[in-house]
Amino acid sequence: MPINIPKSLPARKILQDEGVFIMDEERAFRQDIRPLNIIILNLMPEKQKTETQLLRLLSNSPLQIQITLLRPKNYSPKTTSMKHLEQFYTTFDHVFKKKYDGMIITGAPVEQLPFEEVTYWTELCEIMSWSKKNVTSTLHICWGAQASLYYHYGINKYDLPQKCSGIYQYKVLTHKEDLVKGFDEEYFSPHSCHTYIKEEDITNNEDLTILSKSEKAGIGLILSKDKKFIFLPYHPEYDLLTLKEEYERDKKRKLHPTIPKNYFPQDNANHRPIFTWKSHGYLLFSNWLNYFVYQITPFKWS
After folding, report:
1. Catalytic site positions
2. Per residue in 182-204, pLDDT tens?
3. 228 labelled as ligand-binding?
4. Domains of the chain: which residue ranges?
5. Is the model's pTM score more than 0.85?
6. CATH for 3-294?
7. Residue 192 assigned to a binding site
8. CA 192 to CA 195: how far, in whole Å?
9. Is residue 11 pLDDT above 90, yes or no?
10. Site annotation (Important for acyl-CoA specificity): which residues (predicted)?
């Protein structure tokens, strides 16, 4: 899929070097089709890395996509320059009158805080409320999924005794939903979380369906009955070395992390990890774009 992103966005060169089809605004304008407008609320601290990871997964489709990058207005991470934020990001007060075909709300390193104590919680609630009528389908990742489940359905998160980090195997519980079309019966995905959602809280809610589950990491994909919201407790967008970087960061902070499960060969951090979740990430995002955005969104928003 051609992704229409600014020429100067750092992710552009990385993706071009990987062979991803990047389109500039001039060429996109000449094509007589309407692109899908996808807005990404990026809550991750290292925003440039997350931009690249998500744009990579959005690239595996014949559809043309126009990306808008969104950030909280009153909070700026220390690991991303203000110049980058001002050049490539917008804030909610500039987009709340617009309509979008799809939205992604990322994870955030705030999961050990009560939701109401997160600096941008009030603004996030406004965005999640707005998404119900102004976005065709919203994909929520990790803490973003927990926050949305709490806001929309009153489902809380719970602390784990220790961080759940590694590559975990998930079993698909039903193949009747389009989101898991083409999935194998089992798949792998990275997990990096200090908290979890109780399975019974989801099964007791008639508006939600669990599509996959892991014996070790718990609930996988969750879909709302109206198919408007998708919740991913894990990180299909992670690069090969993201968990390694997190592990080394936590060691430097003397947080005494356990080595990520099922990640390093022989559990030796000096060994190169093996990429076992790439195909799942591409297929998941492709299914979302096709069946939950493109096939449903109106050609003209009214």
Report:
1. 142, 235, 237
2. 999 999 999 999 999 999 999 99
3. no
4. 3-294
5. yes
6. 3.40.50.880
7. yes
8. 9
9. no
10. 111
